[in-house]
Amino acid sequence: xxxxxxxxxxxxxxxxxxxxxxxxxxxxxxxxxxxxxxxxxxxxxxxxxxxxxxxxxxxxxxxxxxxxxxxxxxxxxxxxxxxxxxxxxxxxxxxxxxxxxxxxxxxxxxxxxxxxxxxxxxxxxxxxxxxxxxxxxxxxxxxxxxxxxxxxxxxxxxxxxxxxxxxxxxxxxxxxxxxxxxxxxxxxxxxxxxxxxxxxxxx
Length: 203
Known about the structure:
Layout: E1 7-20, E2 23-39, H1 52-72, H2 79-82, E3 85-92, H3 99-105, H4 110-116, E4 129-133, E5 139-146, E6 157-162, E7 171-179
Parallel strand pairs: 3-4
Antiparallel strand pairs: 1-2, 2-7, 3-5, 3-7, 5-6
Helix pairs in contact: 1-3, 1-4
């Protein structure tokens, strides 16, 4: 029997930037992260077949995107137009191994996220990720890109999250970040959102 995923806690955080360098933004720049702390079913032992974590990823992708949208105040019907950026990350506790958070983040996590944000044929950019091993309270910096084309320079960003009591040695912290726009006052030269064709996830 496959082991059921055990979630100890779920939470979301909203960041709203109203001014930057003393300049009041015409519209606040908003980011949200949804975080789940789960039990690592393979903690303390080597297991060759970790495909169970692929399925965990699919479930967590669905759960976390819905949680992050709620934190942003974005309805499922609004998500295609209002959410522009995304990124993901995970921290495995010391009784695990670095392959385990990657198994959650990569094979199946992205599909439900893309479906919720406009569809897999619309959100073509990779969902950038980072994973590491760390103690309780460790932070993770999630890279963020524009969901339709990764090279849009205005949307290169990061959101940092941490959980004071996680991961415990036998846990994994999994997080998803969503943004409503690019960086505040973005003005760096490079490929722009207005130039996006959205055909291949690059440009």
